[in-house]
Amino acid sequence: MKQCRAYSGADIDSDYNLIVLVAKLKLKTLKKNKIQNRLNLDKLKQEDIRTKFAIECNNAINNHWQDGVKRKNQWITEEIITLMEQRRKFKNSNITKQKVKRWKEYVEELYNGNLNESVLEKEEIVKKDDKGE
Q1: pTM of the shown model
Q2: What number is the average pLDDT over the span 67-71?
């Protein structure tokens, strides 16, 4: 859109305003379809040509399958796959939530002054969690 203007006093017996617009229109370029060469199927009616064509097709397909898909860069190794699996396990586990819950329970017990055997056990568990055991 290059320019747009509204004319409110146009000589039209209407409640609407006249709008004049100058725009640049860019049309989509159409791609022409390439003309494919048509096969002469009349030659395939001859038995010897048909067998040669079938053999060539089978050989081309077999060669293609034997070559297989060649990757440009083989950078994913077994070590990387195991690291990815470990990351998924840790990501899906609630270890951090459990640690936070244990810490909260431990701090509440300390704050209330209720030091007993269960609190000492929780303290040992929390220390193990911090060490990563």
Answers
A1: 0.28
A2: 67
Burial 88-112 (b: 16+ CB within 10 A, else e): eeeeeeeeeeeeeeeeeebeebeee
Which amino acid does the sequence have at 36? Q
Q: 34 by DSSP, 3-state: which?
A: coil
Could you give the CA distance from residue 53 to residue 39 in angstroms, rounded to a whole number? 12
Domain ranges of the chain: 90-131
State the DSSP string of 26-94: -PPPPPPPPPPPPP-GGGGGSHHHHHHHHHHHHHHHHHHHHH-PPPS-----HHHHHHHHHHHHHHHS-
- End-to-end CA distance of the chain, in Å? 66
Residue 23 makes CB contacts below 8 A (sequence gap 6+) with: 1, 2
Three-state DSSP state, 36:
coil
- Here the tokens at position 108 are 């509440």
> What's the average model confidence in pLDDT over 84-96?
73
